[in-house]
Amino acid sequence: MRAVIRHWVSTDRKFSGTLKSLLGFYPNNISLYRMAFRHKSASQNSPDNINESNERLEFLGDAMLGAIVAEHLFSTFPYEDEGFLTKLRSKVVSRHHLNNIARKMGIPQIMNMNEGNFEGSSIYGNALEALIGSIYLDKGYKKAKEFILDRFFGLYVDLHELEALETDFKSRLTEWSQKEKKELEFRVLQDPHHSKDRSFHVGAFVGKSLMAEASHHSKKRAEQLAAEKAWASITQQV
Fold first, then answer.
1. pLDDT at 66 over 90
2. Has 115 been annotated as catalytic?
3. Which end of the chain has fewer CB atoms < 10 Å from its terminal CB, N or C?
């Protein structure tokens, strides 16, 4: 009830209404959700000289999403082994899949970002994870879990379709490099200790050429993201 009243007296009623359509409930702390959709290209300096963007919320939402997806798959597929569950979870939370879901949700229309060439980036999927982080901070774990199960899975995820989808781009790239007799190497270009967002920045090298690069808080995920971009570049050249 308080959230509804807050919506009707809010000076930001339009955005609050947009969030109600997206989430299924009115927000309490609307500034958290504003932050979730603020890309670093449009970040603002706080009085403490800290760049305010959605990267910290993305970090939190990524952890929340991974844990809840794992629990959901564990319950949904009681007779499948760890390997099956791991692969399916990777498909659910892949950058490509999260970007597609974010677009279907309408997240690009409410992003706060400066103009630029972000083709092939994970901006919208990252914002979706930041949104989950916002829900957790604003409404708690139970509400974040409800959103992931009822909205994320309930409206946008087809597990049977994902089962048949091959998303291990690192393996694809490895097989291709072996077939073409080219050397493939993943290098850490910048580690979390020297990165502003505490992420691994990884490059995929074919021979001496840098084919693609990507960042993530997990080194393995960063390698997969770089491999996905490299694979897309290779297939476009064929």
1. yes
2. no
3. C
- Sheet containing 184-190, strands listed edge to edge, beginning at the edge strand earlier in sequence: 184-190, 200-206, 209-216
> Where are the alpha helices (H) located in the chain, listed in sequence order?
2-9, 13-23, 30-36, 55-76, 82-92, 95-105, 123-139, 141-146, 159-163, 169-179, 219-237
Alpha-carbon gap, residue 68 to 79, rounded angstroms: 19
12 labelled catalytic: no
Question: Catalytic residue among 12, 48, 55, 62, which?
Answer: 62
Write out the two tokens for 215: 């960042």
Considering the candidates 55, 58, 129, 213, report the single residue annotated as catalytic.
129
The residues near 195 (Cβ < 8 Å, ≥ 6 apart) are: 201, 215
Angle formed at CA 81 by CA 78 and CA 82, multiple of 5 degrees? 110
